[in-house]
C-alpha cells in the first residue's frame, strides 16, 4: 500500500516536551549495524472503529519491517512499537536494526488522532484505541512469515514509552477481555500509567503544568475532542478537576474511567505474562508510584515472578522550582543488570521471552531503583517497614513558605512507597497542601527528592479527620551529615493555580510517617 500524505499534525515545541526521552524512553531506537541485511519495508493503513456518531471507519496507519530471511518456512516472532503523545510512528528501519538483526519482525503505528491516522484521540479507550490495537494484531497474525502460537495468535511483544506504553497494557487487556487470553506474550512499557485520573489529578488536584502541555500538544493535530479541551480549560480556570458539574462541560471522570490497567483490575482481569517495566523516578507526570501500582495490580503473582521492574532518573521531567527540588538523569540499574541502556535490556528480555534464548538476565521478581544520587538499589518489596512519629504538622494554604520537618538523620536509605497517617483539620473549604520527602543538611537547604510532590485536598472544612496521605515514591541515600525531611508546602509549581482557593491552615496531628527503608 502507498502511504497517504502527512497532514502536518505535530507541534515541535509540544512534541519536544512530551516525547521526553531522558534516561531511556524509546531507547530501543538504535543505529544500524554496518553489515546489516536490508529488511523489507511496507507502509499502509487499515480500517478501524468509527468515531462516535459516525459510520466511516478510521484509518490506522503503520510501517512494517520484515527482517531478511523471514518467510513461511522460517517464521519469526514480532514486536509492535508506537509513539508518545503528540508523536508519530517510526518509519526508518535503522531505528529497529537491532531487533531486525535479532530476527524480529517490527510494526510501528500512528495512534488514532496522530501522524497519518484518522479520528480523535480517546486516550487509550478500549472502544477506540483498544479496537485499533486488536485490528493490528489480527493484521500481523495474517502475515505468513510471522510465528504463531495458534491461529490468529502471533508470537508477540511490544515496546514504547509514555502513550506508547499505554497502548501495550490496553492491547494485552483487550485481547484478554475479548479472547480470554492476552495474545501479547511479553511487554516492555516505559514511563506509562496505572490510572490516568490518578496521574493527571491525584486527589482531584490537577497537575497543571502537564495537563496544559498535553492539551497544547494535541492542538496542532486537532487530536482531542473539542469538549475535552473545553473541560480542561474550565478546570484550569476554576482550579478543580472537571467532573461535568458545570453545565456544558464534559465529565472527565467518565471520559478517563476505562483508560488504564486500574479499570481492568476492577473488572477482575490481570495479565499472566512477563513485563519489563521502565519507570521514571524524576517523572512528575507518570511518577514512580504509577509503575509500582501497575506491578501490584496489573499482573498475576506468576507474572510478577517472571517480570523485572527498573526505575531510572528520567521520563517526563519538569524542574521543581518551588519548592526547590533536585532532578538528575541516569539509568544505573539497566547497567547493573548487564545492559548499556533500558532499550538494550528490553531487547534481551524479549529475546528470552519470545525466542526462548538465554540472554543471562537476572533480577526477576524484584525492583531495581535508581537513587537520587545515581546508584542502583535492588529490593524485593517497596512497602513501608518503618514508622516515624512526627510532631503536629501545620501548613498555611494558598500562600506561604514550605515547612520542612526532620524525619531522620543520615545515613538512611529509602526505596519505595511512603505514606503519612494522621488526623487532618482545616478551617476553610477547599484546603490544599503539598507534601514531599526532602534531603539536606538543614531545613534551609533541604531539596525535594526526585522532583515530586503529592497533594492533600479537603473540599470541606474538617476537624480531626483520619487520613492516609500518599507521598511520592522515591529511592534515595541520605548520607552521614545530612537529614531526611518531610516538606509541607501551600503551593507546588507542578500544580500551579490548583492550590487552596482562600488562605487558611492545614494541620495534621498525630502524624506517623511510614517509610520503606533498606538495610
Automatic annotation (TrEMBL):
Mitochondrion among keywords: no
UniProt-recorded name of the protein: Pimeloyl-ACP methyl ester carboxylesterase
Keywords annotated in UniProt: Hydrolase, Signal
Organism in which the protein naturally occurs: Nocardioides marmoribigeumensis
Domain Xaa-Pro dipeptidyl-peptidase-like: 64-297
Signal sequence, start to end: 1-36
InterPro entries linked: AB_hydrolase_fold (IPR029058), FrsA_esterase (IPR050261), TAT_signal (IPR006311), Xaa-Pro-like_dom (IPR000383)
Pfam family, one: Peptidase_S15
Family: Belongs to the AB hydrolase superfamily.
Amino acid at each position: 500500500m502507498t502511504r497517504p500524505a502527512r497532514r502536518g499534525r505535530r507541534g515541535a515545541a509540544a512534541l519536544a516536551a512530551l516525547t521526553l526521552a531522558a534516561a531511556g524512553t524509546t531507547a530501543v531506537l538504535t543505529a544500524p549495524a554496518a553489515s546489516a541485511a536490508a529488511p523489507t519495508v511496507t507502509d499502509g493503513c487499515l480500517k478501524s472503529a468509527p468515531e462516535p456518531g459516525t459510520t466511516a471507519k478510521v484509518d490506522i496507519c503503520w510501517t512494517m519491517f520484515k527482517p531478511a530471511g523471514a518467510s513461511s518456512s522460517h517464521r519469526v516472532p514480532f514486536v509492535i512499537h508506537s509513539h508518545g503523545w503528540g508523536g508519530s510512528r517510526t518509519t526508518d528501519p535503522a531505528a529497529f536494526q537491532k531487533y531486525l538483526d535479532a530476527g524480529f519482525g517490527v510494526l510501528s503505528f500512528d495512534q488514532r488522532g496522530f501522524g497519518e491516522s484518522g479520528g480523535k484521540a480517546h486516550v487509550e479507550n478500549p472502544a477506540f484505541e483498544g479496537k485499533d490495537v486488536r485490528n493490528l494484531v489480527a493484521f500481523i497474525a495474517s502475515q505468513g512469515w510471522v510465528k504463531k502460537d495458534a491461529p490468529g495468535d502471533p508470537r508477540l511483544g511490544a515496546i514504547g514509552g509514555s502513550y506508547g506504553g499505554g497502548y501495550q497494557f490496553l492491547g494485552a487487556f483487550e485481547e484478554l477481555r475479548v479472547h480470554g487470553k492476552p495474545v501479547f506474550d511479553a511487554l516492555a512499557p516505559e514511563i506509562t500509567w496505572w490510572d490516568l485520573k490518578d496521574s493527571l489529578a491525584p486527589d482531584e488536584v490537577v497537575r497543571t503544568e502537564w495537563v496544559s502541555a498535553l492539551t497544547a500538544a494535541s492542538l496542532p493535530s486537532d487530536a482531542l475532542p473539542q469538549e475535552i479541551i473545553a473541560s480542561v480549560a474550565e478546570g484550569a480556570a476554576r482550579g478543580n478537576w472537571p467532573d461535568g458539574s458545570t453545565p456544558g462541560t464534559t465529565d472527565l471522570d467518565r471520559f478517563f474511567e476505562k483508560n488504564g490497567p486500574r479499570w481492568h483490575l476492577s473488572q477482575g482481569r490481570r495479565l499472566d505474562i512477563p513485563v519489563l517495566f521502565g519507570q521514571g523516578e524524576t517523572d512528575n507526570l507518570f511518577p514512580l508510584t504509577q509503575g509500582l501500582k501497575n506491578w501490584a495490580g496489573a499482573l498475576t503473582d506468576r507474572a510478577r515472578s517472571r517480570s523485572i521492574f527498573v526505575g531510572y532518573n528520567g521520563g517526563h521531567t519538569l524542574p521543581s522550582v518551588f519548592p526547590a527540588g533536585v532532578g538528575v538523569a541516569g539509568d544505573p540499574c539497566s547497567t547493573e543488570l548487564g545492559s548499556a541502556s533500558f532499550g538494550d535490556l528490553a531487547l534481551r528480555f524479549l529475546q528470552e521471552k519470545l525466542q526462548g534464548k538465554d540472554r543471562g538476565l537476572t533480577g526477576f521478581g524484584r525492583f531495581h531503583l535508581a537513587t537520587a544520587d545515581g546508584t542502583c538499589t535492588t529490593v524485593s518489596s517497596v512497602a513501608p517497614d518503618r514508622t516515624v512519629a512526627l510532631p503536629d504538622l501545620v501548613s498555611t494554604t494558598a500562600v506561604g513558605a514550605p515547612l520542612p520537618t526532620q524525619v531522620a538523620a543520615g545515613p538512611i536509605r529509602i526505596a519505595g512507597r511512603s505514606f503519612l497517617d494522621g488526623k487532618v483539620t482545616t478551617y476553610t473549604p477547599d484546603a490544599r497542601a503539598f507534601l514531599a520527602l526532602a534531603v539536606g543538611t538543614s531545613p534551609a537547604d533541604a531539596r525535594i527528592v526526585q522532583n515530586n510532590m503529592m497533594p492533600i485536598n479537603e473540599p470541606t472544612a474538617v476537624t480531626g479527620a483520619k487520613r492516609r496521605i500518599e507521598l511520592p515514591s522515591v529511592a534515595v541515600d541520605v548520607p552521614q551529615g545530612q537529614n531526611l525531611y518531610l516538606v509541607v508546602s501551600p503551593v507546588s509549581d507542578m500544580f500551579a493555580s490548583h492550590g487552596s482557593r482562600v488562605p487558611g491552615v492545614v494541620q495534621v496531628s498525630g502524624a506517623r510517617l511510614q517509610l520503606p527503608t533498606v538495610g
